[in-house]
What we know:
18% of the residues lie in helices and 33% in strands. It is of the alpha+beta class. The chain is globular and about 75 Å long.
Amino acid sequence: MVIFCANAAQAQILKNLGDKAKAKIGQRANNKVDKAMDKGLDKAEEGAKVKKDSDGDIKVKEADGTKTKIDADGDVKIKNPDGTKEKGTTNTSALAFTSKYDFVPGEKVVAYEDFSAAAVGDFPTNWNTNATAEIVSLNNKEGKWLKIQKQGIFHAEFIKSLPDNFTLEFDLGVNDGFDSQPFIISIGTLNKPSDYTDYGHHAEFRGRPGLHLAFGPANGRVSAKSRLLASKGDGDQHVSNDVEYKGWDNSKNTFAHISLWRQKERLRVYVNGEKVWDAPRVFAPAGKYNAIVFAMQGSYRPEDFYVFNNIRLAVGAADTRNKLITEGKFVTRGILFDVNSDKIKPESSGALKDIANVLKENADVKVKIVGHTDADGDDAKNLDLSKRRAASVKNYLVSEHGISAGNLETDGKGESAPVDKNTTAEGKANNRRVEFIKQ
């Protein structure tokens, strides 16, 4: 280890810090963790000792005994002279998909599937299929996933109605080197449960309103096209077109986050934050859409497969400005975090941009950001997690959108203030939320 002192320390820190830590130094956000981090760096000019080890971790020891550690992943840990500890993250710069990402999830989660109730090796009980698939765990992703390796249709039976305004999200992955046919999602009307077998194969939808969307990675046979076929119930295809996209390149990322946003007749589609479709007249005004069906079609290499998870259906259009400014409180379930972590997921950037725009337009408004968790796990850990998540949201709004840190305070309630039951996946998803309260 090399020790740098006095004035040489600041230059050495700026030279050796990783991109994330450099960004955080420039931001100088004024929350407690950031203040301590900045203080630790500034003290390097006043006799503090700074170490950088072979793993890229930065350690600052101040003259008053305060110790600050910034690891290579951007995590910050602070130990104060009185023995108290603080922690946070600088890892926000990699969050946003694109600056144009405007997807805002619906207000209330009405269906959520993470396959947590299914056993590995089984087919989930709240689904139906004319083929076969199984629940698997992955070595590089959290949770359980439904793996599809043969042609077939898979009906999410727990989704029974689709209103005029809804959002649908899910994570879709493929194996390394995937080079087969696209993955299909169909939205339509079932008159009886067995009708699901019509979907994924027939663009005419048997005379019922419906639409197909096809997705695949850039180097697969789908050639990175979002393929949309839609009928309004008269047997004709009213929309039939392909749109190329760059957001999912299997040579770089075998997973994609898919987002669909319906507003009456209109449909917007996003792949890894890239808007690939914005069709104003896709849904039939009088259509009674009540089903979502996934499918794997065509010829496939034996080694190729799809996995998907985190299916999230939410209803209700966001009303951020009115609820925060007029009603004094805005609640969002669109700010998502890694499991048991305060690291914000990339697909949250649209919801964060939405609230940031309201705060910019009302620059004098002061807001308290309050984190909430579901009831899984230890009470004390959930309380700590909710506080850290609220702090991460503040950090992001300050650093990425220029919101005044002085206008934002944070708190966390853990699992102590549920708004839904904690016995279902949908209830837990509604309890995992971030509240913005006008002060």
